[in-house]
Structures are given as structure tokens and as C-alpha cells.
Predict the structure.
Amino acid sequence: MRTLAEVVDYLGVTGETGIVDGTEIRVRRSAAGRKDRDKFISGKNKQNAVKAMVLTDGDGRVLFCSPTQPGSCADITHARQLGLVKLLADAPAVEILADAGYQGLGAQTGGRVVTPPHRKFKKNAFDWYEEMYERQRKAHSSRHIRVEHGIAHLKNWRALARHLGRREHMSDTLQAIAGLLSHQQTTDLISTQQR
């Protein structure tokens, strides 16, 4: 789907759960002396990268892939810039699973974005609390892993393993590959349903 609004409408109509996560793609380092040289350095991996937000369905099929942002952009900031909070506030009941990088969106969207539980007791926790926390975290992780499978299918394309071209063209490349992958996954789904 081309826009995030189309994906939210689709999830609202079908009642499926969406899964969102950010991914980084390594790019070439900016030339020396450029004023924006540092904004492409990822805080997580300490490498030059661009970041994109990927939204899949519960089976890991890619529904949406955002335009890229510099690697220093946080996942939650990228989601806010794309208008995810406003779309979920105005949309029908939709559930979107996210990782800990999106904590805080749940409160802004009325609980429509579900993140892993916070750890209330970091020291001297009760045994029953540790067991409950681990069980909840594992249940969330086992559902959220599907988006990682969708991202892995995207990164199987050589152009996204490491981009050596111009960063300005990265969004177009990523959108094209996401469209091809989505078409391939839809074709595979239709062919298995016809058997």
C-alpha cells in the first residue's frame, strides 16, 4: 500500500493486527566538510545509515515501508513525523504491535500501539513479578517477530544489504523494492489459496 493511511484503513476493515518496526540500511559516509555529516550516524550501530519504518501484517507480509530518514532519527520520532499518532486517533479500533523503541505511543493513541511491558521493579523484584514480566515479554516478542521476518525479506535484495549509491535516491529504491516484495507475497498468497 502506498500510504500509511491506507494501511490503517485496511487493518481497521480486516481486523488484523499490524506490526511495526524500524530498520537501518548502511550507506556511504558523507564527504568531509559537509555540515550534515553527523546526522547519518546511527546511535545504535555507530555506522552511517538511513532508517525506514516497516509495517507488516500478522503473517509478516510487508504492508508499508516509509521513506528514509537519517540514521540518527529515533523510531518513535519517525512514526510521529509520518503521522501515525493522528491516523490511529481518528481510525477505527486497530491494534499495532511495536517494540520498546515506540514506548509512549500507546498512551498517545489510546492503547492502539502495544509495546512490551515496562519493568516496574529493577532491583529486588519479587519472584512472582519476574515470572509474570518474563511471560508477558515473551508473549509480546513471539508475536512481534513477524515484522523482523518481513524486514529480512526486504534486506534479501542486494540493493538494501548495503547501499553504495547516493543517499538521496535511497527512498525511491526502498519503495520500489517494497512494492516488488509486496506483489510477490500477494501472488504467493493467492497461489496457495487456489490449491
About this structure: The chain has a mean pLDDT of 87.
